[in-house]
Amino acid sequence: MSRPDWIVLALTLLGIIAYGLYKGRTTKDLDGYFLSNRMVPWYMVLLGIMGTQASAVTFLSAPGQAYTDGMRFVQYYFGLPLAMVVLCISFVPVFHRLKVYTAYEYLEQRFDLKTRALTSFLFLLQRGLSTGISISAPSIILSSLLGWDIVWTNIFMGGLLIIYTVSGGAKAVAYTQQLQMIIIFTGMTVAGWLVVHGLPQGVGLSEILHIGGKAGKVNIITTGFTGKGGGFDWNDKYNLVSGIIGGFFLALSYFGTDQSQVGRYLTARSLSESRLGLLMNGLVKVPMQFLILLLGVMVFAFYQYNHEPVFFNKSQIDLLAHSKYKDSLPTVISKYEAAENQRLSVMRSPGTAGWPSAFVDPSLLSQQTEALEKEKAGYKATIRRWLNDPAVGGDSNDTNYIFLRFVTDFLPKGLVGLLIAVIFLAAWGSIAATLNSLASCTIVDFHKRFSKKTLAPHREYRLSQLYTFFWGVFCVAVAQLAYNLGNSLIEAVNVLGSLFYGVILGIFLVAFYRPKVGGWPVFISAVIVEIGVIVLNILSRKGIVSLSFLWFNLVGAAGVVLLSEVLQAVMKKKTTAV
Amino acid sequence: MIADNRDEEKVPLFKRWSTWYGLVIGFLVFCIIVFYFLTKHYS
């Protein structure tokens, strides 16, 4: 990175910390620290909800996902607006009426203490670990591409935000998320504009979609009926059916029972403002995700006219250069470069692709460059095969490096720093909200609930700060360990969430919709189904069961609802018999 | 945990919350239809 980039990056990050410290001044009690004294307007609730959900990986991974797999990932969000409606009808009014600090407080009133403690514990376990991984995933990407030290990158990614989160609690989180989202949207819009600006004259949005469409990237809607004999493929992660049904249960669980999200809309100044924030999220999320994915297709079109590297993650090429393939690597790279240069000369010659004159006909492009693309794909496959060799131990998944490589290679000085800052800010917004929620559950659901001492409000406030700091350090420590776990960290976050979300959602669904079911049946069901979901995940990983992780949410939720009904009936029979 | 019964608040913009819910679901359906035609047209 150049000096202007470093200056932009440092100023942006320091500015956010200063803004968080300045705006985070609040009353020194739990109401001020965890609920911002319930004074937040709907648009800040909206930005808070979006900022908490959108992690660094969202902005790094999604454009790369569109580049490699197409835009079908947008279907993953189709269940979200439906979940927002259900939340506004059922969950949010109850949380507001009872004036709870955490979602799990409600469960004690509805069931008993053990169910509340179990659910809150599952949340702390899942969120504490997945936040650590969420810090590590973008750190690995940045350190790989920019050559930064991974330990320090983790500390900056997950550590600096602790300053304002500890100091100002939910209020600091809400105000910084507002500013962070503005910077993120500005950065992504500028990046999108520069991609289009870098394309030949005459290549506009329609041509970009034509180029993407020819390469199968505009696969926004897929049905999922691609299994044997035209049947539904249960292993297919992103299609209309799994997006609406699986995505609905995932979003309902995440926004309705995950304290990092519940804590955002509980800060609203009224029930109406909470509802409005959530419904606006339901309106803007799908188009926003569509635009982020469209950016990936734009980058794909950009690389049709510009040099595409054989592998976007430079560090993996360095790894191969020091492996047993070091002698064969230069030959493959030089052959790839020859094919790529030949392809570019075709693309850029007037009368074919129209470089730099007007764009002609996308079908002509594919005819002329098809053979060269096939040749390139062969060399890329060789590189991936070598990286998959256990003796090399590389990462053959290049998806997360595509957008950042484009940024570092083609964006002007200063803007690279801004885009790197966008990645940090996206991570901070999400992590800060999570630390705040982890601390609120620790003090409200455990410390205060199980302690025999009654603390003064200012002591509770100090203790909350201490717990926020503890969770911050814990998550950074997990991030340092996660680096040694392997390469599929992003998927690990999603899978980890799906292992617990379904069961937690099941408990809440029983609480809201099955009034006759008591504490013991739901507690026993939750424990049994949680073990079942973990076993299902192991079987799925070993290939014994063919089921995508998105469906674990449905299995967990439905499992708890059905089993608790059965247990309730059995227990009622026994009680009657006695 | 203090119970608060002030559930009934003024609905912004519309008369009923159900209109908001309809708008959110309707917009999702609209997005899916637009995406379907984009997929058909450009693939």
Descriptive overview:
- Chain A contains 22 helices and no strands.
- Chain A is an all-alpha fold.
- Chain A folds into two domains: 459 residues, Up-down Bundle (Sodium/glucose cotransporter); 81 residues.
- In chain A, helix 3 packs across helix 13 and helix 20 runs parallel beside helix 22.
- Chain A is globular.
- About 1% of the residues of chain A have low confidence.
- Chain B is mainly alpha-helical and 43 residues long.
- In chain B, 60% of the residues lie in helices and 0% in strands.
- Chain B contains one helix and no strands.
- Chain B is rod-shaped and about 50 Å long.
- The N and C termini of chain B lie far apart (55 Å).
- The interface between A and B is medium-sized, with 37 and 28 residues.
**Secondary-structure arrangement, i.e. CATH architecture of the largest domain in chain A:** Up-down Bundle
Q: Helix share of residues of chain A?
A: over 70%
N-to-C order of helices and strands of chain B: H
CATH-defined superfamily of the largest domain in chain A: Sodium/glucose cotransporter
Spans of chain A of at least 5 consecutive residues whose pLDDT stays below 50 are 353-360
Cα separation of the termini of chain B? 55 Å
Mean pLDDT across the residues of chain B is 84
**How would you describe the shape of chain B?**
rod-shaped
Low-pLDDT residue intervals, each spanning 5 or more residues of chain B = 1-6
- Largest inter-chain contact set: A-B, 37 and 28 residues
Q: Give the biggest beta sheet of chain B.
A: none
Count of distinct structural domains of chain A? 2
Q: What is the helix tally of chain A?
A: 22
Strand content of chain A: under 5%
Oligomer: heterodimer
In a nutshell, what does this entry contain?
The complex is a heterodimer of chains A (578) and B (43). Chain A has two domains: 3-303 and 409-446 and 458-577, Sodium/glucose cotransporter, CATH 1.20.1730.10; 314-394.
